[in-house]
Design brief:
Helix content of chain A: under 10%
Order of helices and strands of chain B: EEEEEEEEHHHEEEE
Number of helices of chain A: 2
Largest sheet of chain B: 5 strands, mixed
CATH architecture of chain A: Sandwich
Structural class of chain B: mainly beta
Number of strands of chain B: 12
Shape of chain B: globular
CATH topology of chain B: Protocatechuate 3,4-Dioxygenase, subunit A
Oligomer: heterodimer
CATH topology of chain A: Protocatechuate 3,4-Dioxygenase, subunit A
CATH architecture of chain B: Sandwich
Chain lengths: 240, 198
């Protein structure tokens, strides 16, 4: 038997992630599991994860304004930040994927029936790898708010969906980035599904004047923080 | 608290299909790879209706039970840089991703994993870790797929053993199929799949 010592990951602090059943968000009613998830020990399966790399990326994947022959309508923005863990350590070489509505609040998806115009110059999807400091950067347009059928006069605050892998299965995260000062926060059950108000605010990007480009684009900063490692390693064994 | 606070999860919503599916996403191995098997199944809601806008992702060891990752101390290559990765099973990504179709179906092509070292000197039976994302799921749900033709390994698996309810435990074992295995995910209801907090 070969002894293997590995470090696990700290579990999320209570109140950071939404509970799965949130009655105000109607789609949870038939989809949220009724039993609480069983807590299992972290094993090699969970502390490892895919290395998804450059072979999968195209040169224009991180610039959502240059994926077509013309420029999309809307307010050009830079969205950037770092992928970190809870100890502030950079998560390098890690895939970040984004998708969003266009400036009019319409997704380039058959299922989106909101009667707002599509934009032939905007697909609304991008991806990039973090650099050695955990940094990522996208150029896109500011998405519009849009109505949805959750309740009467329901509107989603403008947001960009983010999908992040980190370096381990336990760090996998899908979230949404919001824009500062949005008046729609108060009535949105998805934003408010996060119990801890301080954690909720961490989904709101900050306006970043220093990264704004002169006569070109406004900039917003959004750091994404994934689970940090446990201080004490655990031991596991391999059969000879 | 010293470090930055964790970023909360949010739902993938109904329109992730514009960004997340990849053409080769369902293929953890290339079609035609010797030993490749299909894992097929459906995602169903509490009323038994198909969930047509879910994304299924799987992660697993290779047939030797190894991960090409710096945190698997047995990995031959120490490097984590994607371009430098040298898999022990060439061309095997170990990861697959498939959106469900209009009938709630997904399918991934993969290699059967080997047994994996577990906690306290135990051995985990061959398994896949699975995440499901969807509109109406504010956080992913996580489960495991075990194999029906491994009764002894499954009986000794520490994670399966921790699922006390035998009906819930049975939801974690795939069924045999002509070209691989079948594994349905019931998000809710009388056949609810056992989900894990990892």
């Amino acid at each position: 038997m070969t002894s293997i010592v590995v470090s696990g990951y700290r579990r999320a602090t209570e109140g950071v992630h939404p509970p799965l059943a949130v009655p105000a968000y109607r789609s949870t009613l038939r989809r949220a599991p009724s039993r609480p998830p069983l807590i299992i020990p972290t094993t090699l399966t969970e502390i490892t994860g895919p290395a998804l790399g450059e072979r999968d990326l195209g040169p224009l994947d991180a610039d959502l304004t240059r994926q077509h022959s013309g420029e999309p309508l809307g307010e050009r923005i830079i969205v950037h930040g770092r992928v970190l863990d809870e100890d502030g350590r950079a998560v390098p070489n890690s895939l970040v994927e984004v998708w969003q509505a266009n400036a009019a609040g319409r997704y380039a998806h058959d299922g989106d029936r909101h009667p707002a115009p599509l934009d032939a110059n905007f697909s609304g999807a991008g991806r990039c790898l973090t650099d050695d400091q955990g940094r990522y950067r996208f150029v896109t347009i500011r998405p519009g708010a849009y109505p949805w059928r959750n309740h009467h006069n329901a509107w989603r605050p403008a947001h960009i969906h983010f999908s992040v892998f980190g370096r381990a299965f336990v760090q996998r995260l899908v979230t949404q980035m919001y824009f500062p000062g949005d008046p729609l926060f108060g009535q949105d059950p998805i934003f408010n599904s996060v119990p801890d108000p301080a954690a909720r605010e961490r989904m709101v990007s900050t306006f970043d004047l220093d990264s704004t480009e002169h006569e070109w684009a406004l900039a917003f900063r959004f750091d994404i923080v994934l689970r940090g490692r446990e201080a004490t390693p655990f031991e596991t064994q391999e059969e000879a | 608290m010293t470090g930055p606070g964790l970023t909360p999860s949010q739902t993938a919503g109904p329109f992730f299909a514009i960004g997340l599916p990849w053409p080769d996403g369902p293929y953890a191995v290339a079609p035609g790879t010797p030993g490749a098997v299909w894992l097929r199944g459906r995602v169903l809601d509490g009323a038994g209706d198909p969930v047509t806008d879910a994304l299924v992702e799987t992660w697993q060891a290779d047939p030797d039970g190894r991960f090409d990752h710096p945190d698997d101390p047995r990995a031959a290559a120490g490097g984590y840089a994607p371009s430098a990765a040298e898999p022990s099973a060439p061309g095997f990504r170990r990861f697959a991703r498939c959106p469900t179709d209009e009938a709630g179906r997904y399918a991934i092509l993969t290699l059967r994993p080997g047994p994996v070292p577990g906690p306290d000197g135990s051995t985990q039976a061959p398994h896949l870790a699975m995440s499901v994302f969807a509109r109406g799921l504010l956080d992913r749900v996580v489960t495991r797929v075990y194999f029906p033709d491994q009764p002894e390994a499954n009986a000794a698996d520490p994670i399966l053993a921790s699922v006390v309810d035998s009906a819930a435990r049975a939801t974690l074992v795939a069924a045999p199929a002509a070209d691989g295995y079948t594994f349905d995910v019931h998000l809710q209801g009388p056949h609810e799949t056992a989900f894990f907090d990892v």
